[in-house]
Amino acid sequence: MHSKTTHAAAASQAGHATKIISAPVALSALIAASVGFAVLATAFYYTPFHSGLHEDGPVEKVSAALWALCAIMVFYFATLPALRKHWQVPILFSLLCARELDFDKRFLSEGILQLRLYSGDAPLWEKAIGDLSFYWCWSCCGDCYG
Length: 146
Description:
Elements: H1 2-17, H2 23-45, H3 58-77, H4 80-85, H5 88-100, H6 103-106, H7 116-119, H8 124-141
């Protein structure tokens, strides 16, 4: 009897030794490595350092990749009941990634977040897309804010 409990205790300790890395530790390590790489790339490839911080620079690309990585990690580590209840978290990370890649102004003549889209001379179909997107956001999240 004693040998079975000893083997069970040794097996459980061995299981802890081979445990995979936790999600917060993995995410923190990836963020630190990515930010470090972006800063080094900016320092080496852009003569004035601030010129590497412009649109489509390495820092913006790394931040978009990190937002995408956050969404992927939520899908990977979260359980299905948690995703059903908190579906907004990966969607928010995905929208922040899209915003960082300038999707809010890449596909329309004016940016979807610009007032000129709605009050200016933008085509009617672009105004309709903007109205539908705001209606969708309000219908999904309007209950959360009263």
